[in-house]
Amino acid sequence: MIARKDVNRRVAVAAAAFAAGALLLTGCGAGQISQTASQQAAVNGSSATDNTVDLRNVRILAPSGEYNNDTGGEALLAFVLVNSSPSETLTLTGINSDVAGSVEIGDVKPIPPLATLKSDVAGAPTVQGQTLITVKLKDLKKKLAQGPNYDVTFLFSNGKTIKVPTPIDSEGQQRYTAPAAPAPAAEGEGH
């Protein structure tokens, strides 16, 4: 009998220890924010969605060639527009920006259901079924610099408008690199 009581007691103690350990381990993640909860896509641009219209990687391209992004000059707007409607054809009817006197949109054709329209530099790679156009922000009202976002509003044939805070693309720009550490002083030099 005594041995049986010891076994029952040991089982009860082990079960209590297991329950306490499980409770402690379960509580470790309580209230914590996962590392991936706030991660964004690895692209330079902004994104916006309005039911069946998805705008992805919206950005003003960094200055290059004739596009200087300077006051009075021009800048290129790049984006991918997805018509995610399974049945409605969509047309991009206009683009406005508070930093441009006007916006010149290339030859825009209706975007069939579940198809995409890409705006980028001429010759940019596309996937099968994707239409490529060029969109220019003309007569810039101020010099566009990296850092702030600039509002760009997209207008569609179904009456929808989507305003996207748009950054300057950093691709191709020289990135900041920390200065090299100074070389160690030669023996006998220094303090």
Short recap of the structure:
With 191 residues, the protein is an alpha+beta fold.
What does this structure look like?
The protein is α+β, with helices and mostly antiparallel strands and 191 residues long. The chain has a domain at 46-166: Sandwich (Immunoglobulin-like). The protein has one helix and ten strands; from the N terminus they run H-E-E-E-E-E-E-E-E-E-E. Strand 1 (46-50) and strand 2 (53-60) form a beta hairpin. The chain is elongated and about 90 Å long. The N and C termini lie far apart (82 Å). The model is unreliable at 173-181 (pLDDT under 50).
List the helices and strands and how they pair.
Blueprint: H1 2-27, E1 46-50, E2 53-60, E3 75-83, E4 92-97, E5 100-105, E6 115-119, E7 130-133, E8 135-140, E9 150-156, E10 161-166
How much β-strand is present in the residues?
A: 25-35%
Number of helices: 1
The helix content is: 10-25%
What CATH architecture label of the domain at 46-166 applies?
Answer: Sandwich
- Could you report the average pLDDT, rounded to the nearest whole number? 80
CATH superfamily label of the domain at 46-166:
PCu(A)C copper chaperone
- Uncertain residue ranges: 173-181
Supply Rg: 29 Å
Order of helices and strands: HEEEEEEEEEE
- Biggest sheet record: 7 strands, mixed
How far the N terminus sits from the C terminus, by CA atoms, comes to 82 Å
CATH fold-type name of the domain at 46-166: Immunoglobulin-like
Text of the CATH class of the domain at 46-166: Mainly Beta
